[in-house]
Structures are given as structure tokens and as C-alpha cells.
Design brief:
Length: about 400
């Protein structure tokens, strides 16, 4: 290919065009920078100097001077919400929504931010209304998830189920807590007077369908709850043998939950004059799957049915196999309570031991271990919860006390 000398004319021309473009960009940047209020740069300086409170005040001044800075309004609103200043966050997002010239996308964004403000502030009615407006927008998915949390907080299980069904139409994702929604409906039906047994049974059928749709390994707790409610229905209908079968299902399929049904199982056997058989069943289960809750039930039953010597022999053997302060504390508590109720001197298997003093010393150290613990937030509770009262997560409690988890 031959080189033509006249091509050299393009070299200075291209250089001139590049120089002009650079000059134009620099002038535009300088012009925009000059238009920024001084408060903006003061705010940046405060941020760099780790003075967030003064930085916020400076940025608020910028927002007042230039109401068109929507992104700054969004940033300020989110910052106020994270800091817990809910009233200021709400005002910022309400001021954005009041603008008639706000584009549709930014209006939906402002509505979503305002709904989150209401939710965090605990204003559930306003949050529900705000999220409902967003159901048919680009924020519809997030709005449905938030509505589910709101309905949970309000214990409105019917609307929570409806929201889950709407969510499933948008995304194919599991909702593990759906089983518990139906269980809650069943328990509400049973708590009415007279109990709505048919309504409770229908809710349990739906709960069983939802449980089958879950992964088998993750549905153990939900299945146990369904079975326990079935047992309650059978017990209220005086169907003793059917109730016993449901308890047996818990022992066979989810042995770690035996402590939750042990007391009721013993009552079931006592109704048919078979207390010894019920106790033998729990003793056998405790040998294979020991737990503190089950230990407590078995010890008290042995104490009542077979006397102090047999009960203490069981306790000594159980504590040797699985040493536990809680176990020792509970059996001492039972002994002291029995002696006080019968106004008899305490029969100590340890000659010369002051069991009342020993129990007080042990109890001081064991109280903090006598709790169930949420795996999600660490909330501690004396009784077992299907839903954590602290973080509202489902199935985060193991049916074992803190000492057993150490």
C-alpha cells in the first residue's frame, strides 16, 4: 500500500479535535463543581474526618438548597433509618413523594424506602399500606416478602398464606415457614370454644402438604409440630390409643423431640392404667437418646411410681453416663419439693450431705444453662419456641438445653 503525503493533513486535524474535546470536558467539570454548594464539600470533609453527625447536617443543608438532588435525598433517608432516626427518614422520603415532577421509577423507589421506614418504626398499619401499593411495581417481590413479615407479626396467618401464594407466582422458591402458618391456624381453631376440630384438621392437611414439599432433612421440626397437634386433637376427642400412636411417631421418627411429648405420653398411659408401660417406654428411649428434658420427666415418674431409691439409682447412672449440672439440679429440686410437700425429713443417699445447700449452690451456676437458644440471634428462652421471639425466625431452636449444646 503506497503512502500518500497528503494524509499528513489529518494528523494536526485529529490533534486539534482531541484538544478541543478535552477542553470542553474540563470546562464542564469545572462549571459543575463551581455550582456545587460549599456545604457539599464540608460534608465530604466531615466524612473523611470521621464526623458523621456534622456530615449529615451539611448534606441536609445541600438538600435544602437544591431540592433536585434526589439521590442525595435517598442516601440521607437510608442513613437516618440505619441510625434509628425514623422521624427524619420518613420526612425525607415523604418530601420526595410530594414532588409532582418525580419520575415513576424514583417515585416507586421513594415509596419503597418510606415503607421500610414505617416497618422499622413499628408502624405496621402504615407499612402494610405502603407495601401493598408496591405489589404491582418493580419492587413487588421485596414488598411481598415484607408483607409476609408484617402478617407474621400481626399473627394474621390467613393473609400470610395468601401473600406466600402470591410470592410463589413470581419466584419459584421454598417458603419453609408455610407449614407453621397452617399449624398456627389449626391451633387457633382448637383454642376456640367449642373447638373447631374440622377446621383444624383441614389446616393440618394443608400443613402436611407443605411439609412434603420441603426437603426431608429440613422438615423434621415442622413434621413434629404437625404430629403433636394431631395428638392434641385425638386427646381432646378421648381417642387415647390414637393419641398414643402419634406420640410414638415422634419417638420413632424424631427422637430428639421426645422431651416435648414425654409428659403427655405418660398421662396418656395413665388413662388406661398402664403407667408402668409408659415409664418403661421412656426409660428405654432415654437409654438410646438421653436428654435433660426427658431425664427430668423420667426421674419424677420413677420417684412417684417406684420410690426414691429407684429414682436416685436411675439419676446416678444417667449422670455418670452424661454428666450435667442441670440434671443434678433438677433431681435435687424434685427431692426437696417432695420432702416439703410431705413434711418429712429429706432422705439423702449421701450420708451427712445438706442437699438444700448443695442444690442452692448448683442452681446458681445452672440457671444460665437451663434455656433453649436461638441459632440465628442467640435469644434464650426457658421454653421451646417454634418461632424465635427475638428475631422471628422459624425452627431455630434445637430441643436441647444450652448445657447439652456446649
Amino acid at each position: 500500500m503506497d503512502f500518500e503525503s497528503w494524509w499528513l493533513i489529518f494528523v494536526p486535524l485529529l490533534f486539534a479535535l482531541g484538544w478541543m474535546a478535552a477542553r470542553f470536558d474540563i470546562r464542564q467539570i469545572l462549571s459543575e463543581t463551581r455550582n456545587l454548594p460549599d456545604s457539599y464539600f464540608r460534608g465530604l470533609n466531615f466524612l473523611l474526618n470521621e464526623e458523621p453527625d456534622r456530615a449529615i447536617d451539611a448534606f441536609v443543608e445541600v438538600a435544602k438548597l437544591d431540592p433536585e438532588t434526589t439521590e442525595l435525598h435517598f442516601a440521607l433517608g437510608s442513613l437516618f433509618r440505619r441510625r434509628g432516626e425514623m422521624e427524619r427518614a420518613i420526612r425525607v422520603h415523604q418530601s420526595l413523594l410530594s414532588r409532582a415532577d418525580l419520575p415513576v421509577g424514583q417515585r416507586e423507589h421513594a415509596q419503597h424506602e418510606l415503607a421500610q421506614d414505617y416497618l422499622k418504626a413499628g408502624m405496621l398499619d402504615r407499612a402494610e399500606e405502603a407495601f401493598t401499593v408496591l405489589k404491582d411495581t418493580s419492587f413487588g417481590l421485596a414488598a411481598l416478602r415484607a408483607l409476609i413479615r408484617i402478617y407474621e407479626s400481626e399473627h394474621d396467618w390467613t393473609r400470610a398464606i395468601q401473600a406466600v401464594e402470591s410470592l410463589r407466582k413470581l419466584v419459584d422458591e421454598p417458603v419453609p415457614q408455610l407449614v407453621h402458618y397452617y399449624c398456627e391456624l389449626a391451633q387457633v381453631a382448637l383454642a376456640t370454644k367449642p373447638p373447631l376440630v374440622e377446621q383444624a384438621q383441614e389446616a393440618l392437611k394443608q400443613a402436611e402438604r407443605a411439609a412434603k414439599a420441603r426437603d426431608a432433612g429440613s422438615a423434621a421440626a415442622a413434621s413434629v409440630r404437625v404430629t403433636m397437634i394431631h395428638a392434641s386433637i385425638a386427646g381432646s376427642a378421648q381417642q387415647t390409643l390414637l393419641q398414643r400412636q402419634y406420640f410414638q411417631v415422634v419417638l420413632d421418627q424424631s427422637p430428639e423431640f421426645a422431651g416435648l411429648v414425654a409428659e403427655q405420653l405418660l398421662q396418656n398411659f395413665s388413662q388406661t392404667q398402664e403407667s408402668a408401660q409408659g415409664l418403661a417406654l421412656l426409660l428405654s428411649h432415654h437409654e438410646k437418646y438421653p436428654s435433660l428434658d426427658l431425664f427430668n420427666v423420667v426421674f419424677r415418674a420413677l420417684r412417684a411410681q417406684e420410690g426414691v431409691d429407684v429414682a436416685w439409682a436411675f439419676a446416678r447412672q444417667a449422670l455418670q453416663a452424661n454428666p450435667s449440672l442441670l440434671g443434678l439440679d433438677r433431681l435435687l429440686e424434685a427431692e426437696l419439693a417432695h420432702a416439703e410437700a410431705n413434711q418429712t425429713p429429706l432422705e439423702s443417699p449421701i450420708p451427712g450431705a445438706d442437699l438444700a445447700l448443695l442444690r442452692r449452690l448448683i442452681n446458681q451456676h445452672s440457671q444460665r444453662l437451663d434455656r433453649y437458644t436461638c441459632r440465628s440471634c442467640g435469644f434464650q428462652a426457658r421454653r421451646y419456641y417454634w418461632q424465635c421471639p427475638g428475631c422471628n425466625a422459624w425452627e431455630t431452636y434445637k430441643p436441647r438445653r444450652m448445657e447439652e449444646l456446649a
